[in-house]
Write a structure and sequence with these properties.
Strand content: 5-15%
Shape: globular
Radius of gyration: 23 Å
Strand order of the largest sheet: 6-5-11-12
Number of strands: 12
Length: 401
């Protein structure tokens, strides 16, 4: 950090002092968590002693505090509409929140000269040059993580929503603006139209038609309705031409990838502060993020609330999997079945001009035979038998044979 220049608002692709402190904060936070929740095994070769947790949390806290007090960065908060504002954190390059980013441009990244990548083409809704898109399909459980603006939990009453008919406005009314900026689903506006995820048409006689059309109303929508009926909106540029992919022109997304941003620093600070029993610091940092989204501030703080805020704020930015590993909760949190949502369009409400849907929960979306599984030994990668056979001094990591 001492050898690096002050951060430049015009060149967030070059690491400055704040990038070094951000890396220090993240690395120390990981080390503190592994010390606190992990196990020391193989005579100390694996793991971090528990008594070191506090010192690592202090390092993480101090590094984050250095950035916070420097004034180098602030939460992006330029747009009155908070859905638009959260989208623009990732679309408006070199904004006040960006600490370090991987620059891209809109030139084809496949020909060796451009710096484009494929986030828009692969992840955006249709229309798409390969008739695909939405290769990331969030679970319904992730949609439920987003609270309501008054602070109520976002968990749906899954029995109630499968009764009667629902408009998408009724279903998602008053959700955290970050929900709409992070995910897309049925009726999400996109390039002048709305995403149609519905799979089936509820006819006036109560039967469900799943092919062709009924009185010129299609029985299925134009999106990937065979998956979870959710996609990832974060990082998508609505102006990108996703129909230009047939000739390899899909690698033209020009949106920079943010490696460190200020909201993560506040979350790192909050977590480290809480573990150091600085609860007022933790609460203030979390509420700065919630206030930016214009959802109800918290009046008290605990570990679960900090982890929840991290999951929602940093969704699909490459943090969650590693957070579960360092907290040693992946065995529980990832070894389970997840679900999706099926929308069935009601014909009568559609022709009346107010579309509503019959809703069905799609249980075990990953398959009814084999559920996702994360084993205890997966907290470390295997050295593998081929390596241990070649070098008898190597000892396999715990749990592997």
């Amino acid at each position: 950090a001492d050898d690096l220049p002050a951060p430049s608002a015009a060149e967030t692709g070059r690491p400055g002092k704040s990038a070094a402190f951000a890396l220090k904060s993240r690395a120390a936070l990981y080390a503190g968590s592994i010390a606190q929740y992990g196990k020391v095994q193989l005579d100390g070769a694996v793991g971090i002693p528990a008594e070191k947790a506090g010192s690592y949390y202090q390092i993480a806290y101090d590094a984050a505090d250095r950035i916070i007090k420097s004034g180098w960065h602030q939460l992006y908060n330029q747009d009155a509409d908070k859905v638009t504002n959260f989208k623009n954190i990732f679309l408006n390059e070199n904004n006040s929140e960006v600490i370090f980013s991987k620059p891209h441009n809109n030139l084809n990244g496949l020909d060796g000269n451009g710096l484009g990548w494929c986030v828009d083409f692969y992840c955006g809704p249709r229309p798409n040059g390969w008739s695909r898109g939405n290769l990331l399909a969030p679970y319904l459980e992730m949609a439920e993580e987003f609270e309501y603006i008054d602070g109520r939990q976002g968990t749906l009453d899954r029995t109630a929503i499968q009764q009667g008919l629902w408009s998408t406005d009724e279903l998602w009314k008053d959700k955290d603006p970050r929900f709409f900026a992070t995910l897309f689903t049925q009726n999400t506006p996109w390039q002048g139209i709305k995403c149609e995820f519905y799979n089936g048409l509820l006819k006036p006689d109560g039967t469900i038609q799943t092919s062709d059309s009924y009185n010129d109303v299609l029985a299925i929508g134009d999106q990937d309705m065979t998956s979870t009926c959710f996609g990832v909106m974060k990082y998508l540029d609505e102006n990108h031409d996703n129909m230009a992919g047939t000739d390899g022109a899909w690698a033209t997304s020009g949106t920079d990838w943010q490696i460190f941003r200020y909201a993560e620093i506040l979350l790192n600070y909050a977590e480290a502060a809480f573990e150091l029993e600085k609860t007022s610091d933790a609460l203030d940092a979390i509420n700065q993020i919630r206030n930016r989204a214009e959802i109800a501030p918290l009046t008290s703080i605990d570990r679960a609330k900090i982890r929840h805020e991290r999951k929602v704020e940093l969704a699909y930015e490459g943090h969650r999997y590693w957070d579960l590993r360092r907290w040693r909760t992946a065995v529980t949190d990832l070894s389970r079945d997840f679900s999706g949502l099926r929308y069935i369009l009601d014909y009568n409400s559609y022709v009346a001009g107010t579309p509503k849907y019959k809703l069905m929960i799609l249980d075990k979306i990953d398959g009814s035979v084999t559920s996702p599984l994360f084993r205890e030994e997966n907290y470390y990668f295997p050295i593998t038998q081929s390596r241990t056979s070649n070098n008898p001094k190597l000892i396999e990591n715990p749990g592997y044979k």
